[in-house]
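A.,

Following up on our hallway conversation. Structure tokens first:
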């Protein structure tokens, strides 16, 4: 199999390493990181165009590489996709009749005419979907157990859906009655998760959808009142849970920043938490981009995080739905790290509050792999070569980590030539790797009996950095 490898990086990419000392969140305040700088950083796409403190805010996140996404609310009771029935639920669910209540002219998006994709189906009728909170009693929910599963998998942060497009709030909010207080469970799931993350030493983030197909003020001509509601909720969450480290918004690019009264919103966030990280789905480039359901492109200029699922669905769709293999999940993580990005892997808890056992199995196996090979993921940069079907590379200092996912038939992986001199090599799971450097490149071989299921990592140590940073 032939593979094409890019040249190393342009000189501009050297700026990607311009940050030096790791930032402590306590060092970043509204005083030393003022609002104008904060907003300018949110408007800048490339890392090199952001301020030093703006870049340093993401140091922990870049080092982490692997996080857990959680899509879960009362929709799990019906084993249907989260929220989307709210757009097409004014019938039996069979004819997909649009619900125009949000307003056909909102930001010129005609959002109720969004294509009805196969993974949204089936639509759940109004009388069923709107009453799901009355049956939501996840009696087996244990925030500590979910967080422990993430930590054991090697994940360093969790992003939880606290409000999706259907408007249901997974906490007890002072600003709505469409929340956990309206369920027989009557517990603050967000609060329990935030505390469990703090106890376990994991970073905690919230997904908050600006779109709200339940709130009466969401729609054309009513957005001022709705935006005040949204700001009140986000203020409520940031005040209650000072360990919130990420705000993950979710509106498409064609929803402008101004639609959400963005200046008021971001000014409030900066006032409360200038160190918080914000994604690219609020009308600005934000701190990182969010390729959905695919691996992001190799990029040393722009931070990114792929958000992906085990099943092709965001919410739990029952045991008849196939779960991807351990190998596929591991390869996603490796390809993200090799492309200089993060992987935010979604779990979809069941109506019981438990993680699907098949997803737990995959995460446990990845955790076992990470305990052996974690140094090749955490705190690394992607490259120097683009990931491909056979291998991906990460690097740290003078070391290149070669993650071999699919061994060629002849048992030898070939890398392009590098200017640095190879001084040593090691197999991270122990044993010996055959490594040979020539003017044409580097050849690597590992006996089949010493290869790990999923991927084998060979560390190559050089007399200098192969990229200069």
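Then the amino acids I'd put at each of the 469 positions:
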């Amino acid at each position: 199999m032939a593979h094409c490898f890019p040249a190393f990086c342009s000189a501009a990419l050297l700026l990607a390493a311009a940050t030096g000392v790791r930032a402590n969140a306590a060092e970043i305040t509204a005083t030393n990181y003022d609002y104008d700088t904060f907003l300018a950083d949110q408007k800048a796409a490339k890392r090199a165009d952001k301020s030093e403190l703006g870049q340093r805010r993401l140091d922990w996140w870049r080092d982490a590489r692997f996080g857990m996404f959680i899509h879960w609310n009362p929709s799990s009771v019906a084993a249907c996709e989260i929220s989307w029935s709210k757009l097409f639920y004014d019938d039996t669910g069979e004819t997909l009749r649009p619900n125009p209540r949000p307003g056909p002219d909102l930001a010129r998006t005609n959002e109720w005419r969004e294509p009805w994709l196969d993974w949204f189906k089936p639509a759940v009728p109004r009388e069923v979907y709107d009453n799901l909170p009355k049956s939501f009693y996840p009696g087996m929910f244990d925030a500590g157990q979910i967080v422990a599963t993430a930590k054991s998998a090697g994940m360093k942060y969790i992003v939880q859906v606290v409000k999706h497009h259907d408007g249901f709030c997974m906490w007890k909010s002072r600003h709505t009655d469409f929340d956990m207080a309206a369920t027989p469970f009557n517990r603050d799931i967000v609060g329990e998760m935030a505390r469990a993350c703090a106890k376990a030493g994991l970073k905690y983030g919230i997904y908050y959808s600006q779109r709200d197909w339940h709130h009466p003020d969401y729609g054309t001509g009513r957005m001022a009142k709705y935006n005040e509601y949204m700001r009140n909720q986000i203020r409520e969450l940031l005040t209650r849970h000072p360990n919130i480290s990420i705000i993950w918004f979710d509106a498409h690019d064609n929803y402008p920043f101004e639609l959400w009264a963005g200046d008021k919103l971001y000014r409030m966030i900066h006032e409360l938490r200038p160190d918080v990280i914000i994604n690219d789905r609020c009308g600005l480039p934000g701190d990182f981009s969010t390729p959905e359901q695919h691996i992001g492109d190799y990029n040393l200029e722009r931070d990114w995080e792929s958000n992906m699922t085990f099943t092709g669905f965001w919410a739990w769709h029952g045991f008849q739905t196939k779960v991807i293999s351990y190998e596929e999940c591991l390869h996603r993580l490796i390809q993200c790290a090799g492309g200089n990005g993060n992987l935010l892997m979604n779990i979809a808890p069941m109506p019981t509050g438990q993680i699907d056992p098949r997803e737990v199995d995959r995460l446990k196996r990845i955790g076992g792999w990470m305990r052996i090979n974690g140094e090749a993921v955490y705190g690394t940069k992607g490259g120097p070569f683009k990931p491909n079907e056979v291998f991906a590379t990460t690097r740290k200092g003078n070391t290149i980590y070669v993650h071999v996912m699919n061994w060629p038939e002849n048992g030898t992986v070939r890398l392009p030539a590098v200017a640095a001199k190879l001084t040593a090599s090691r197999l991270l799971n122990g044993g010996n790797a055959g490594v040979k450097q020539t003017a044409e490149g580097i050849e690597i071989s590992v006996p089949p009996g010493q290869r790990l299921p999923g991927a084998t990592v060979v560390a190559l140590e050089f007399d200098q950095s192969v990229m200069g940073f």
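The first strand starts at residue 66 and ends at 70. Curious whether your intuition agrees with the design.

B.
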